Amino acid sequence: MHFGYDDRTEELRGQLNAFMDEFVYPAEPVFEQQLAEGDPWSPPPVVAELKAEARKRGLWNFFLPGEHGAGLTNLQYAPLAEITGRSPHLAPTAINCAAPDTGNMEVLSMFGSEQQRKQWLTPLLEGEIRSAFAMTEPDVASSDARNIATRIERDGGDYVINGKKWFISGAMNPHCRIFIVMGKTDPDGEPHRQQSMILVPRDTPGMTIKRGMHVFGYTDGDHGGHAEIEFDDVRVPAENLIGEEGGGFAVAQARLGPGRIHHCMRLIGMAERAIELMCKRAVSRTAFGKPIAQQGVVQDWIAESRVRVEQLRLLVLKTAWLMDTVGNQGAHTEIQSIKIATPIQVEWILDKAIQAHGAGGVSQDTPLAGLWAHARTLRLADGPDEVHKRSLARRELAKYPR
Amino acid sequence: MHFGYDDRTEELRGQLNAFMDEFVYPAEPVFEQQLAEGDPWSPPPVVAELKAEARKRGLWNFFLPGEHGAGLTNLQYAPLAEITGRSPHLAPTAINCAAPDTGNMEVLSMFGSEQQRKQWLTPLLEGEIRSAFAMTEPDVASSDARNIATRIERDGGDYVINGKKWFISGAMNPHCRIFIVMGKTDPDGEPHRQQSMILVPRDTPGMTIKRGMHVFGYTDGDHGGHAEIEFDDVRVPAENLIGEEGGGFAVAQARLGPGRIHHCMRLIGMAERAIELMCKRAVSRTAFGKPIAQQGVVQDWIAESRVRVEQLRLLVLKTAWLMDTVGNQGAHTEIQSIKIATPIQVEWILDKAIQAHGAGGVSQDTPLAGLWAHARTLRLADGPDEVHKRSLARRELAKYPR
Amino acid sequence: MHFGYDDRTEELRGQLNAFMDEFVYPAEPVFEQQLAEGDPWSPPPVVAELKAEARKRGLWNFFLPGEHGAGLTNLQYAPLAEITGRSPHLAPTAINCAAPDTGNMEVLSMFGSEQQRKQWLTPLLEGEIRSAFAMTEPDVASSDARNIATRIERDGGDYVINGKKWFISGAMNPHCRIFIVMGKTDPDGEPHRQQSMILVPRDTPGMTIKRGMHVFGYTDGDHGGHAEIEFDDVRVPAENLIGEEGGGFAVAQARLGPGRIHHCMRLIGMAERAIELMCKRAVSRTAFGKPIAQQGVVQDWIAESRVRVEQLRLLVLKTAWLMDTVGNQGAHTEIQSIKIATPIQVEWILDKAIQAHGAGGVSQDTPLAGLWAHARTLRLADGPDEVHKRSLARRELAKYPR
Amino acid sequence: MHFGYDDRTEELRGQLNAFMDEFVYPAEPVFEQQLAEGDPWSPPPVVAELKAEARKRGLWNFFLPGEHGAGLTNLQYAPLAEITGRSPHLAPTAINCAAPDTGNMEVLSMFGSEQQRKQWLTPLLEGEIRSAFAMTEPDVASSDARNIATRIERDGGDYVINGKKWFISGAMNPHCRIFIVMGKTDPDGEPHRQQSMILVPRDTPGMTIKRGMHVFGYTDGDHGGHAEIEFDDVRVPAENLIGEEGGGFAVAQARLGPGRIHHCMRLIGMAERAIELMCKRAVSRTAFGKPIAQQGVVQDWIAESRVRVEQLRLLVLKTAWLMDTVGNQGAHTEIQSIKIATPIQVEWILDKAIQAHGAGGVSQDTPLAGLWAHARTLRLADGPDEVHKRSLARRELAKYPR
């Protein structure tokens, strides 16, 4: 267990923090204003400016190990992702490390054919296009991929897709050009070999974006929203299949580990932002004749928040270190642990920061309410907490055979 | 402690439930659709239809005791308000029992001059206009009325108002014709005699509605939103003052008790709706080969929810009975108790109902996320929980003099 | 729902409170001292003195409705039981309302033969002897009576008992003269008709009291402890059977309802005692230059405690009223609800009162730690909370058939 | 942040685990039996046997860095202390790493004169005698050393001690030969220079052990209990002073850091023991026709426990690493954090393990109830959680000057 920040990490942290201070935080009010006035489903123009600046500075594709990306380990990326979590609407996109593109690039990088990589991975890595990942379905408990109902059927040189997806993040962004769709090619096969993933370009006939799903009152339009999509005899060439038929479950598993840890890293940053805002509010707001920083209950919130976030960060770092050293499979329990612990604890911290802000805390005047909605949703995304706890408990119990 | 439902209450409950079943619940999807398409700051047309139907049926002004209203006691009104809480965007407005009109009508009924009652109370009781209550301020802890910074200064036959308010619910609804504004007429007077309330008609020069405050992404546009308002030399005739100069604090106190219990009554109804939705989801959704109703964790949520809501209802009913028998002052501790207990417990129940729904739970496809945001906000409205706990504890401690 | 305190109740409350003030509270330190010095498994002598005084004053057998007892309703008894909960080692025994005698007297009163009532009920009602109820078994989940493993077999004019019981409260008190033992007379019968109850006098050959079970270090010796008992061919005459063969399950059900509500009533009193002690400590203990009563966190505990106990009391009173008006069966959900809610909430209140007392709070210098251990144990006694929640949830879910 | 286990640590872990398996766990039932039969204030004979065996194996004085002890770093000791926490009545004493001796040896090692070290440190290091640390007082909030009321007055060549202490662990063990007493030599001096520490041998005239304080129902007699002690003109030679006059506060601070982390390390081990027992119970106990390991609620407890204990361990390891690398002062926030987080979380885990065991969980048949009482008490020992949270919050807030 060696998970300090090495020199490379410290250097990048310095550069990233400088970028945050000089460009990202000042862009936040601009972003809010442009958002209120512009296209409801696209990132406001300031985001493109931030991307250009970040790229110029070499702050780019940190998430991707190996030759296609920045070549960082998970442990090196973790503290950088944390920093971007402090401004989650701007910073991850600015440095081309935003979900779901990150996971999609990983998939293409690991499993894509040369042609697929050239056509889709390259422009994604360049930040020229965006992408979506269509797995979740409204009618089944699709956190278990075996329940997927969407069909992908071979028909001559094509595959034909039929089914219904929802909460497909980013799909309504016109820059989102490519969809990775999960479906069943062999519904009667062995449970973990029934699924395949396939590439569906935007505007393919038969694919209808029906509406944007809300998250509490937010549309998340700047991220392209969360779409409900119908696939009605959508036909794509057979070479759009990613990897081999029946490989979808394995690809999904490979994709989820990094996705989960990235979310948790950023949540740590959100928590730090919340603590900072809570403290600033506490020292500046007066009630009953003294700053609320002197109220015992507020102090209790701050201390608890600090103690909780320290524990979460260590667990996330250990998980990153394990993924680097023994692989995602070996870090399975830890990945599940951070997925269970982080969203709900950060939600708690955000709740307290909101409460310290009074009515302003639930409004658009601080980022807190929006961050809260995001943290809350992560208790459900990629499978509800309860599913992960059940699975983790069963592994713990398996140590004690009757 | 006798707080069963008497015959009159049971009769009205029957009538109100019939109205809910026949008209309100079926109107919910219509409301959502009209909302998405229409004026962002007005109730959709279906609300006016519901009002007409409710009025025709005599389901009207239940909240107001005495001759001006339906003449019900708090104890009689409580179970009716609970029922309306099951569809809080539609039902309270439909029967003309929606905040902040209810509190404003109470104020006018108790403290308004004959002229004020004629001009504003009558059309409010008829449901012809809406109103707002401008007390909360962005820059001070205005849950303590002594902190109010807005100035109301006498100038000849007029009063001139300067200050800033926010979270003024309903203000952006064009039907909102009258504002009750709280400010200081005598900033150097005795702390509880510095404040006055005054009537400011919509479109009075100098009053600028700057923007709508959001609540977890929601604008609550159908209720006229929550406005930030600037008062810049707003001039109204002296007879617009409600009651006497320096009486504002007392009026605010008189207004808050019923306001708080109404909120809590409706929260009980929201909790019941949440339990109903959670159960329906649990019996119909399958995961791991069986309905999630058979999952122990889901059963735990349902049992806890039922046990908590039963306790809350009894405390609310006791409070209503006390207000009826010993007056709002005598029910002070209980009013504070329900304000402390109800929003946070109902928030918990809503959270579990959301979790049981998976991703759909945070979306617009169930009322749960919106109800959650409302319950969460009530932990801050009318003073954060912490202020009420502090006050209640001090009274408890005062029983034990050193 | 009418559950105020009627005149009879108020009169008895006055008398009981006077008895508490004059005799019970002053006896507490005497009790502690005698306990440290005397027989480890008997109530100290001061208890007998209190019993004599209580009886003289007519404060006796309040728990028992009907002609054999004081003839109070559950609703009348509830506030009296609450008062006794304030000094639970002394007061319930003093007025002959202590478990498990109460339940045993109910059983004998309802189901006992004339002979059984004469021999055992009469001296119990007189407070001359004590009794035990042997149901719980170490090796099975005996909160479900269908799991009972103890055998009761007919052999000529006798029954022969074999099995193992534990946590049999009061058994080691030499005044405990009679045991009601639950076992199976017909293990192959219909699940709810397999069990019978039978009377076993102390010192019947074959019954061995093996040891006293501890509860968080406490032996509860003043109550006769909690025994582990072996029954090895214990032979009693056939007329010792209570009611009919196969009636044991029904008798157990009849016994549990009142038992649970009595526990909850007393828990309310314990919570009130805890709040009182917490407040007294808070106003008298200084830290950081001021009484800890001025610490926001301590105020938060006090307010939460008050708000929670008010809700619990109302739910308990409603349950009592329901039992009086629609019977124990009709109050099933409410009895389960108070069993779920009361111990865990009172445990929370006691924990906070302990914390406010510092190290002294965990010691013998306040009653708090002992009360805590009792409340904690009630989350397990008569079936763990989880079993009751599961059952309650299933009834709630049954309202929504697929 | 490098806190893996190095080779030396792994080697010692192997040896210590072997010792636990071969000697300690098998000794637990022996210990319980000897305890029930022997001297109520001494460790049962089996403890001395374990000590002899441990010493023979070189498993000894791990806690003490530097030449006097085993020379381990905090980071090396942490995982060993964790292992001893699995059997906290036996293992820490067996390897001569039990509080309060550990802290006392540290004090003597760092601040003792040559004579003091020879007379007291040597036999303590040899495990020949035990010791006590007399700081806590009943009448003041003595977690703040500035409140200490005990007086230490110079009188010629002696010091004379007057005052009252309580919860002095180990004091009633006849093997406890030496007391380190904290008191004020200069009550009018600078607040942090008023206190001194002084050595008081057992049986010094004027020192009266009045009684043993209980912890819930436990006397902790095997550890020598927790004494209330009166010092009435207790006279010791001036050379018994530890360090210099006025140095008591600094010595106390130096002592507390390691003491706190040792407690937390052992708590981690207790949590692991609890999880193990909970799992074993879950797979072996049947209710409703299946092992309770299949109950969702039980799985939830197990998963939560695992996730929490992983976070706690990492925070404790980081703290140990910091103490080793930047010193106790530099690890101040982390020491406070583990003190805040560990006892309450481990208490939660123990509570769930108890609940999974049913009635047996609160009894002497598992170590769980005793461990619970210990964890609960650590929320108060060395200052209640609230004091530490307040202090930590103030440092966090100090980052944001107005």
Automatic annotation (TrEMBL), chains A, B, C, D:
Species assigned in the record: Kibdelosporangium phytohabitans
Any one cellular-component term (Gene Ontology): cytoplasm
Cofactor(s) essential for the protein: FAD
Domain of life: Bacteria
GO BP, one annotated term: fatty acid beta-oxidation using acyl-CoA dehydrogenase
Protein name from the UniProt record: Acyl-CoA dehydrogenase
A Gene Ontology molecular function term of the record: acyl-CoA dehydrogenase activity
Record's subunit section: Homodimer.
Domain Acyl-CoA dehydrogenase/oxidase N-terminal span(s) in chain numbering: 8-128
Keyword Transmembrane: no
Alphabetized SUPFAM superfamilies for the sequence: Acyl-CoA dehydrogenase C-terminal domain-like, Acyl-CoA dehydrogenase NM domain-like
Limits of the Acyl-CoA oxidase/dehydrogenase middle domain: 132-234
Lineage: Bacteria, Bacillati, Actinomycetota, Actinomycetes, Pseudonocardiales
UniProt keyword list: FAD, Flavoprotein, Oxidoreductase
Protein's UniProt keywords contain Flavoprotein: yes
Sequence similarity: Belongs to the acyl-CoA dehydrogenase family.
Acyl-CoA dehydrogenase/oxidase C-terminal domain residues: 246-395
